[in-house]
Amino acid sequence: MPEPIPTKKLPTGIPELDLILRGGLPCHRLHLLEGAPGAGKTTIALQFLLEGRKVGDRGLYITLSESTDELAASAASHGWSLDGIDVFDLIPIEAELDRQQTVLYPAEVELGETMRLITDRIAADQPDRVVIDSLSELRLIAQDQLRYRRQILALKQALQNRRCTTLVLDDLTSYPATKELHSLMHGVISLEMIERNYGASRRRLRVAKMRGADYQSGWHDFAITPGNVLVFPSLIAKEHGAEFDSSNMSSGLKELDDLLGGGLTRGTTTMLVGPSGVGKSSLALQYAMSAVRAGEHAAYFSFDETYGTLSDRSAALGIDIAGPLGSGRLGWYRASPSRLSPGEFVWQVRRQVEDLNARVVVIDSLNSYISTMPEETALILQLHELLNYLNNQGVVTILILAQQGIVGDVENPMDLSFISDTVVLLRFFEAGGEVRKAISVVKKRSGIHELAIREFQLFPNGMRVGPQLLNFRGILTGVPSYDGPLDPLLDGEETG
């Protein structure tokens, strides 16, 4: 049996969409781009034609829903020019009081005549890429579903004979809006815009079908910015494996490394758990800066802290972050969940790993990431896939989880221990008339660790992990009882 001839594909002008389509749209086929008004159909269609213009393809935009001026204004809002792209305007222009028509009023003509005008224009222009906007207008003209289907089938055959690649748009507004036409299309891409209770709308797309071609299924977040359509392909962790040395990474503090059995293992996820103010972010920053000092790149994603707060805190610990930030060895990003989609966040993390070879990634904090996007139903699954991806890349991932309360019964707002390989617990406790901090490792899958509970202190010139607290009981409850001599704790010596 002869080998099948692979179908040539046309790039869409959106690189990440081409990744999802495994190269682009199959040539000389009829593709449907459907979505509610405002979902981004026109912008994606224009990108498709502009990409064609860049590689020398002839483009034709047939519009039944927007005038040429409106289309040009939409393009100009992105800084694009339609020069070199033919626009065939089939909507009414009522410039005079007697409603004299200068082009055409589709609602007053038969569907067959409209279709003839479309096919005649395509035959005259001989384009390589065609956009028809939109099917909803044609459906309104037809008024009969069977007749409408037959005309679309005839259009499909005529377009294939012309050897052009066509993108037809449908805003799903005309009644009845059905998926009956999916069977006539070679490919179907669906766009969706989700309104949140608060914050920016979330856009996403999926390839519903692509006959005879491979593609990545499922929903993918995307965003429209001036001049760009940014698509964020959903992550499949098993497709991104890498060879790496699964050695331990040092924090730069011997006592902390000893507590962790030699340090944090590359390709694992560590969760720092404790109440607010106990030092979780400072501990995470210590690891990030240790990687920077070793000549590696580290990325810190903050959902809670501003750069000013981070700068002040690091300065109080004697840590210089301005230099590494300026040189690009440390990446710091203020994430806003009300404006950010989960897919975009995952894509930002991937860019740090794949483009800048980040060896440490800090996410601060999980509480804000999850609680500020309550409409998202698959955040934990997306996070699990992201962490698997980071582990496959040999990254040391540090997650920060804030507990509710200060001392006494401290509640854990969520059970995410199943996504972590190592869990480090930090707690406040009362002793000697002071509020002090304790640190312990309660889980480490990748090796042996100390079972000791040690005191943890922050100083102007760094941090310190002290000796084991031998004479206390109930430290992890926050209200310990003391059975030893008067001063079993750290002597207060300020050493880094």
Please describe what this structure looks like.
With 496 residues, the protein is of the alpha/beta class. It has 2 domains: 226 residues, P-loop containing nucleotide triphosphate hydrolases (Rossmann fold); 184 residues, P-loop containing nucleotide triphosphate hydrolases (Rossmann fold). The protein contains 13 helices and 24 strands. Strands 5-4-6-7-3-8-9-10-11 form a 9-stranded mixed sheet, with helices on both faces. Helix 4 packs parallel to helix 6 and helix 11 packs parallel to helix 13. The N and C termini lie far apart (72 Å). The C terminus is likely disordered. InterPro entries: AAA+_ATPase (IPR003593), Circadian_clock_KaiC-rel (IPR051347), KaiC (IPR030665), KaiC-like_dom (IPR014774), KaiC_dom (IPR010624), P-loop_NTPase (IPR027417). Keywords: Hydrolase, Kinase, Phosphoprotein, Plasmid, Repeat, Transferase. This is non-specific serine/threonine protein kinase. It is an enzyme of class 2 (transferase). Its EC number is 2.7.11.1.
Task: Tell me the layout of helices and strands.
Elements: E1 9-10, H1 15-20, E2 25-26, E3 30-34, H2 41-54, E4 59-63, H3 68-76, E5 85-89, H4 111-125, E6 129-133, H5 135-142, H6 145-161, E7 165-170, E8 187-194, E9 202-210, E10 220-225, E11 228-232, E12 248-249, H7 254-259, E13 264-265, E14 269-275, H8 280-293, E15 297-302, H9 307-316, H10 322-327, E16 330-334, H11 342-354, E17 358-364, H12 366-371, H13 379-392, E18 396-403, E19 422-431, E20 434-444, E21 454-459, E22 462-468, E23 472-473, E24 481-482
Parallel strand pairs: 3-7, 3-8, 4-5, 4-6, 6-7, 14-18, 14-19, 15-16, 15-17, 17-18
Antiparallel strand pairs: 1-2, 8-9, 9-10, 10-11, 12-13, 19-20, 20-21, 21-22, 23-24
Keywords: Hydrolase, Kinase, Phosphoprotein, Plasmid, Repeat, Transferase
Pfam family, one: ATPase
Domain KaiC: 8-245, 247-479
